[in-house]
Design a protein that fits this description.
The chain is of the alpha+beta class. It folds into 2 domains: about 130 residues, no CATH class; about 110 residues, Lipocalin, CATH 2.40.128. Strands 4-5-6-7-10-11-12-13 form an 8-stranded antiparallel β-barrel. Strands 1-2 form a two-stranded antiparallel ribbon. The protein has a two-stranded antiparallel ribbon with strand order 3-9. The longest helix is centred in the first third of the chain and has 25 residues. It starts with a helix and ends with a strand.
Length: about 250
C-alpha cells in the first residue's frame, strides 16, 4: 500500500492545492496546501484499505473520488474556522498555544483528519480575525492584564483605566499614546458601539486624552476569556500581548 500511496502523491498534491486555493490566495496558501495534502493522504490511505476490485472501478478513480470528497469537507470546515458565522461574531472558539503564539480553534472541530487544518488556519496571523465568545458586562468588570505589563480595569459605569497601554502597537494610532490612561468602554452592537449593550464579543475603548478609539476583540471560552486590542483583526496580538482577567 505504501508504494501505491507514493504513486498517488502527484494527484494528491494537485487536489490539495486546488482545495487550498478555494480558501485563500494569500501567504498562508503554501502552508495550507501542505496541511490539505496530509488530509488527502489520510483519505487515500483509507480509500486504498477499502478498495474492492470486484466493484469495477480503477483504484485511482476510487481514491480520487474519496479524496475529493474529504477535501471538500475540509474546505467547508476551513471556512467555518476562519469566518464562523458569515463575516461576523460567532461563538465556540477555544484559544490554544501553538509554538508560543495563541491560536483559535473551533471547539466543534473534533475529527483528527481536520486537526492539522485547524492549526494551519489559526497559527497565528489569522487568529484575531476569528471572533470569540461573547461575555457580559458583569464578566468584563475588573482588572485585565497581559504578560507584557499592560492592564485595563473596567467599571460598571462604563469607565475604564489603563496602565502601560502605550506599549501596545495599536496605541501608535492615537495622537498621544503616553496619555492613554482612562476613558469609556462599550460593547459593539450590530453596527456601532452602544453603552446600552449588556453583552458582546468586541469592545470599543474611547480614551479621554484625545478621543482616540481602539477596538478590542474578545477570545476564548466564556469562563476563561482573553482580549486583544488591535486596529486590524487580521493581525492579532503577540503571545504576551493578550490580556486576561485577573480579578
Amino acid at each position: 500500500m505504501d508504494t501505491q500511496l507514493r504513486s498517488l502523491e502527484p494527484m494528491l498534491r494537485t487536489l490539495a492545492l486546488r482545495a487550498a486555493r478555494r480558501v485563500t490566495s494569500g501567504p498562508q496558501l503554501t502552508y495550507l496546501a501542505d496541511e490539505f495534502a496530509q488530509v488527502a493522504r489520510i483519505a487515500a490511505w483509507d480509500a486504498l484499505g477499502r478498495y474492492d476490485a470486484s466493484q469495477g472501478a480503477r483504484p485511482e478513480t476510487f481514491v480520487y473520488a474519496t479524496v475529493d470528497a474529504r477535501l471538500q469537507g475540509a474546505v467547508l470546515s476551513a471556512f467555518n474556522i476562519v469566518w464562523g458565522k458569515p463575516m461576523g461574531p460567532g461563538r465556540g472558539r477555544l484559544p490554544v498555544r501553538v509554538g508560543g503564539g495563541i491560536c483559535v480553534v473551533r471547539q466543534i472541530l473534533r475529527s483528527a483528519a481536520f486537526t492539522a487544518v485547524a492549526i494551519a488556519l489559526t497559527s497565528c496571523g489569522w487568529a484575531a480575525a476569528i471572533y470569540a465568545t461573547e461575555i457580559s458586562a458583569d464578566q468584563l468588570a475588573g482588572r485585565w492584564a497581559s504578560e507584557a505589563g499592560t492592564s485595563l480595569t473596567f467599571h460598571a459605569d462604563h469607565t475604564f483605566t489603563s496602565e502601560n497601554f502605550d506599549k501596545l502597537p495599536v496605541a501608535s494610532d492615537c495622537s498621544h499614546p503616553s496619555d492613554l490612561s482612562s476613558g469609556r468602554w462599550a460593547f459593539h452592537s450590530e453596527t456601532s458601539a452602544d453603552e446600552t449593550a449588556s453583552r458582546g464579543t468586541v469592545l470599543s475603548l474611547t480614551f479621554s486624552a484625545d478621543d482616540c478609539r481602539v477596538d478590542t476583540y474578545l477570545f476564548g471560552d466564556e469562563d476563561d476569556p482573553s482580549m486583544c486590542p488591535t486596529a486590524d483583526p487580521d493581525e492579532a496580538c503577540d503571545s504576551i500581548g493578550y490580556l486576561h482577567r485577573t480579578k
